[in-house]
Fold this sequence. Notes:
The chain is an alpha+beta fold. The protein is built from 29 helices and 23 strands. A hairpin with a 4-residue loop joins strand 1 and strand 2 (about 15-20). The relative contact order is 0.11. The mean pLDDT is about 85.
Amino acid sequence: MWPDGICRVTDTRYTKTIQYQDINYQLSQNEDKTAIFEAWCDFLNYFDSSVQFQLSFVNLSATQETFARSISIPPCGDEFDGIRAEYAGMLQNQLARGNNGLIKTKYLTFGVEADNLRAAKPRLERIETDLLNNFKRLGVVAAPLNGFERLHVMHDILRMDEQEPFRFSWDWLAPSGLSTKDFIAPSSFEFKTGRQFRMGKKLGAVSFVQILAPELNDRMLADFLDMESSVLVNLHVQSVDQVNAIKTVKRKITDLDKSKIEEQKKAVRAGYDMDIIPSDLATYGAEAKKLLQDLQSRNERMFLLTFLILNTADTPRQLDNNIFQTSSIAQKYNCALTRLDFQQEEGLMSSLPLGLNQIEIQRGLTTSSVAIFVPFTTQELFQTGSEALYYGINALSNNLIMVDRKLLKNPNGLILGTPGSGKSFSAKREITNAFLICPKDDIIICDPEGEYTPLVERLHGQVIKLSPTGKGYDGSPCYINPMDLNLDYSDDDNPLSLKSDFILSLCELIVGGKDGLAPVEKTIIDRCVRIVYRDYLNDPKPENMPLLEDLYNALRAQDEKEAQYIATALEIYVTGSLNVFNHHTNVDVNSRIVCYDIKELGKQLKKIGMLVVQDQVWNRVTINRAAHKTTRYYLDEFHLLLKEEQTASYSVEIWKRYRKWGGIPTGITQNVKDLLSSREVENIFENSDFIYMLNQAAGDRQILAKQLNISPHQLSYVTHSGEGEGLLFYGNTILPFIDHFPKDTELYRVMTTKPQEVASA
């Protein structure tokens, strides 16, 4: 083994290994399945007869402690340790339900014959580049393994009984006089019986799969990999030279034709119909001709396949049970599992991802027959980073879903679902989780229904209640000035540019009308905006911050009749009964977690309130960017902003800008139809790589299926689904999830919005 990942497995054979991730094949639509299958066929056809390759599927058990460490939330000695303990306990319980005890990895090992390393290296590198590009076309994340990583994989396989970390450095070899084998070999090997072997404290047995079925099923490999025991599945594949394959088949057809003629001669001599020939001859003749046609005209190639399965266990009884389970799966698909008698050592060597096949049991198959063993099943989402948050349990594998939205290209997200499906609860769970394990993240909530207050207060955050009377929870004045300007407001040279856009959106919302503001009106407002901010820009003191009243007066001072029209429309929000937004900001908007409660604003003011909060959030985002902090923004009843064309365009503009400025916005809505009816919804979906979809109404399901390319099978997870059940979209991954939060906790009591539970809390 060399540090660059090249391994010499025989005197003339050199191999490299690529690790690749899973994609959602089993959950895909039929058209997508067909596309993946055809792409995989093309992938296989890339290999010529000089390149032998091996597909390795390694399912190894790991200790619960390994996973427990990745989800632990250590106490910090503050007033939130009780919540941390509750949340960590919930995660531990969810972990115990799943089979995260298995670490599943997939590898492709390929090798070439060469006289020396110098000759092998350029060929291997070229093949590696081609294979990585082929994986990319399939939408599969893949990366080559270096020498250390390849040794690590083999160490984990050969020493699976120890659960010890792999310790190795290339610098250790020369002084110690040891080879790489010494660092990966188990304490002992024992090949006594011929039907099984002992590797350290582990028992193992290698079997091969006899493919007897006339037709194969794409579920077969997936079923082997779904077993809840340590298992290594290996497919050694060798391409046959196309010319030789066609010649061989033609020879067989000639032999069969010869046999057919002989039988016909016998029939004539015996005096019966010469068309009556043995059924085997007729069957084999037809199949051979079909095979020749496939090879010549259907882009099919011939491959030799060796299908090996290595079962491991701690006791003989457990090993027998595992082998019996494996055999049952093989029988289910009309195949047979046969033990490699007196070839267990060769079988073990062939089961390591080295690209070395010492088992000479091969089955000839065409490209499509080999491709039916599609090496993709269902993706897992279990990220072990320090900021990975919990989003439920994978409904297919019962494994925890732990992901970090910051790792997405675009972390913007949506939470969609019918009333009672658990939307707000899911948002609160994410808020709590982020608050506990992401101490540098600020959290802002726009709360149109007044349901986030108990949670925010428990987390010692700031609740800002906006009402027509201007009174907060304690009766004291509580005001937000929509004209607040942060001089770092935008990445443009002029900080007024985006602020002007916001005020235009605000005026459009106020003035109303089907067509919004006319060009003349927009020009007048932009002119007045520059006038009213003049003093503040010259001397940026808080008392110089303009109010809506200043804009109103500036409009009144203009000569155009359009200016008077806009001013009149603004009047009710300046001197009239809805003047709550005509005051200087007098509340603390800089708490780590801030909730804007706009429940009491009423129909006229609510949309304006949401737009104002949106702008306040943007101010915070710009401040936090300078401090290298992330701003998480949760916007409930998001459809209200997208319903009006005037506010939708501004919201989308902000939605696009957030990512670059370190913001993670999340829109929450139950009125999916209203959301989808917006002209801007395309932009929202295109700029959102995270969607948490709960139960959906019938009409919404069809539109969402079309919008997000959801298969009927996937759609079933959001059809009449229970509370906290649905589909998670994370980048290109779609997973069904279940999230049932324990009800006997303090956290549940402050997060629930069910009237009966709130009353009893």
